[in-house]
């Protein structure tokens, strides 16, 4: 291996450690990388010069002897993250330190065309780079799409609720803004974010389900690796046929999971059309009518069965729920977990934890930003640095 290639790998190792683990002293970096202190010092200095990392004085009271400087990633490097849905698009400027520097929600009267969505993103990028992000380094864009995405080229194969099919979304945004663009399935990106930084951090076997206005998607992590499947489309839990024990619980003959466990059905039952996730969560805690309470109970029964099936097949340590599914679970988290365990094979459910996404409303944006940051994290001295 050439000296240049080795240095590139060492820079990437240091930047990835700081990005994923948070602030670390030079001593801790030396221990984690196996490099000598002078090499670590040189690498940190190079990352500081690129404004990707900053160093600060340590808390001298916390250790004896000469304290080691502490390095941390900065918010100077920024990714634009977007999550288009049928009713609105959320955009954010996400720093390399995972800080949300800017956030906007664009409401639509009807699902947008891909070109309309790209135009909205481009307008925000132009306004941000001319204004609050003028002193920042824009690394790229990441888009979390509720549908099937071919990740290698960012083509949206099918986002049925948006009406997008075989759309070269990454190429469209890159051609409009010049930004390197990564596109992925929203739930898969959410699963990655929760695995790296959230409720599933440090867990090797995870099932993640995300509930949004467009339906239910998911992601699976097995032995620490995200499962993509042959085409990269793994995790479409919402399209599975749900097991429904009581025929009275079925609302759509032959329907799939997202037909039965539905955000639109919840907001309709609660009398809250257009409610955001926070308002929905509040209403779910205290349903206003017996009919609303029954709809909540019905959806929880079906969700529990779907999760039990996933537990039997995949044997995860943790099931993480995001979006309206998290709000549905939090109405009675212990009860939902018990219902899942009661329907799963006992051995498969041993030690199982069912929890909500700890990154909450930021999970999809952070996941999209991670996709945009990937080239920088792999090569900090490359053309993006």
TrEMBL record:
It comes from the Bacteria. Belongs to the ROK (NagC/XylR) family. This is ROK family protein. It comes from Microbacterium caowuchunii.
């Amino acid at each position: 291996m050439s000296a240049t290639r080795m240095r590139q790998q060492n820079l990437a190792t240091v930047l990835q450690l700081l990005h994923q683990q948070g602030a670390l002293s030079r001593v801790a970096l030396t221990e984690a990388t196996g490099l000598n202190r002078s090499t670590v010092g040189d690498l940190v200095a190079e990352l500081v010069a690129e404004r990707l990392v900053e160093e600060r004085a340590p808390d001298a009271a916390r250790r004896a002897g000469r304290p080691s400087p502490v390095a941390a990633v900065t918010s100077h490097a920024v990714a634009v993250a977007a999550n288009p849905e049928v009713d609105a698009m959320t955009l954010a400027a996400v720093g390399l330190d995972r800080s949300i520097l800017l956030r906007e929600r664009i409401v639509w009267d009807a699902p947008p065309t891909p070109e309309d969505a790209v135009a909205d993103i481009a307008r925000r990028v132009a306004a941000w780079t001319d204004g609050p992000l003028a002193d920042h380094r824009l690394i790229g864009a990441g888009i979390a799409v509720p549908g099937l995405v071919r990740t290698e080229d960012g083509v949206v194969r099918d986002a049925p609720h948006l009406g997008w099919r075989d759309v070269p979304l990454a190429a469209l945004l890159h051609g409009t803004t010049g930004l390197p663009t990564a596109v992925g399935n929203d739930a898969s990106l959410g699963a990655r974010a929760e695995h790296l930084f959230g409720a599933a951090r440090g867990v090797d076997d995870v099932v993640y389900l995300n509930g949004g206005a467009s339906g239910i998607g998911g992601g699976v992590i097995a032995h620490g690796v995200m499962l993509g499947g042959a085409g990269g489309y793994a995790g479409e839990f919402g399209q599975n046929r749900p097991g429904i024990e009581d025929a009275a619980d079925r609302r759509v003959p032959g329907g799939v999971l997202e037909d039965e466990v539905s955000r639109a059905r919840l907001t309709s039952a609660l009398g809250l059309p257009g409610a955001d996730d926070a308002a929905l969560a509040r209403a779910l805690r205290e349903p206003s009518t017996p009919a609303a309470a029954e709809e909540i109970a019905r959806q929880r029964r079906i969700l529990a069965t779907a999760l039990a099936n996933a537990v039997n097949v995949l044997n995860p340590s943790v099931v993480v729920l995001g979006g309206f599914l998290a709000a549905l679970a939090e109405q009675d988290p212990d009860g939902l977990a018990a219902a899942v365990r009661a329907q799963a094979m006992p051995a498969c459910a041993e030690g199982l934890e069912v929890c909500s996404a700890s990154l909450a409303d930021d999970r999809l944006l952070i996941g999209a930003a991670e996709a945009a940051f990937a080239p920088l994290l792999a090569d900090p001295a490359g053309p993006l640095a």
